[in-house]
Amino acid sequence: MSLKKTKVHLISGFLGTGKTTALKSLMAQKDPNEKWVIIVNEFGEIGIDGAVLSDNGIPVAELAGGCLCCTAGAQLGATVQKMLRDAQPDRLLIEASGLAHAAGVIDELKAPPFDKMLEIAAVFTVVDPRQFTDPDYANQALYKDQIGVCDVLVASKTDLCSPEQLAGFHAQAAKLFPPKAKVAEVRNAQLDIRWLDIPVIEKPRYRLKSESLPDNTMGFQSEGYTFPAGCDFDGEKLTDFFNRLPQMAEGLVRAKGVFQVLGTWVWLNWVDGRWGASQVSWRRDSRFELIAKSFDADLIEKTLNDALEK
């Protein structure tokens, strides 16, 4: 009989966005019948002191160091194992510091022995919309990492934003790929506890939303495909697939995907007659989307399946 896995939620975000307040808001709504444990970075703009949280009856561990996957990496693993062993919780909530590379934390929690103990549930990133729409922030690797890895993107400090800034946030968030399971505006970093159970598993195949298409009157065809995390793709076969796409899809307009290749995650993007590759922080699944005048959706799916490592 397989043991029930503990659901783990990472709460990420840049410095000063309200991660600690967001975590406290979830704690205030906790079902008394659920067992939770919490890990937080010791250094934060507010900081959570274990003594303060002890009133909630939730075990809390503080880790020193600004980055869970770097400075505190070994300590994180030992702390998680101890808390799982001692408390046998239903949920583990981790508040990463504003300097944490969120994808690295997810990688560690998905690796043995944690892959048998933990289920990576909804991952949250809390942002200030004023920063989110500022290229000086948006182009930083750390900031992009935190945005890319999450399932739920939360805009906090909305009372300090203009209507134009909030509209810009939603417009930019709608263009993210892979798309988020939820994009939300909150005041004072108050999260809805129901968001912890937002479904994060996509259908194997799906149609793109109509607003994604260049012009619905021109008869464009679209399709999306997902593959579970843990399924590695062969890099050479993926390269060949993207090279052959213009022949496989008549009138190709756009093709993009994130793929797990040899344990790493890469973004492949075909636009304006050429494609490029870069690393990406997404960890939920591999997926591919394309828009073209005409293509055989089943053939595309078969070709992608054939590109999986056997």
Q: Can you describe what's shown?
A:
By secondary structure, this protein is an alpha/beta fold. The chain has two domains: 6-197, P-loop containing nucleotide triphosphate hydrolases (Rossmann fold, 3-Layer(aba) Sandwich), CATH 3.40.50.300; 221-307, 2-Layer Sandwich (Hypothetical Protein Yjia, Chain: A,domain 2). The chain is 29% helix and 26% strand. The chain has ten helices and 16 strands. It has helices at residues 19-28, 50-53, 73-87, 102-110, 129-132, 135-138, 141-149, 163-173, 235-248, 297-306; strands at residues 6-13, 36-41, 60-63, 91-95, 118-120, 124-127, 152-155, 182-185, 205-206, 221-228, 249-250, 254-261, 264-271, 274-279, 285-292, 294-295. The strands form three sheets. Strands 1, 2, 3, 4, 5, 6, 7 and 8 form an eight-stranded parallel beta sheet that branches. A six-stranded antiparallel beta sheet has the order 9-10-15-12-13-14, covered by helices on one side. A two-stranded antiparallel ribbon has the order 11-16. A hairpin with a 2-residue loop joins β12 (254-261) and β13. α9 (235-248) runs antiparallel to α10 (297-306). The longest helix is centred in the first third of the chain and has 15 residues, at 73-87. It is globular. Mean pLDDT is 86; it is low at 44-49. Zinc chaperone that directly transfers zinc cofactor to target proteins, thereby activating them. Zinc is transferred from the CXCC motif in the GTPase domain to the zinc binding site in target proteins in a process requiring GTP hydrolysis. Residues 222-308 form the CobW C-terminal domain. InterPro entries: CobW-like_C, CobW/HypB/UreG_nucleotide-bd, P-loop_NTPase, Zinc-reg_GTPase_activator. Pfam families: cobW (PF02492), CobW_C (PF07683).
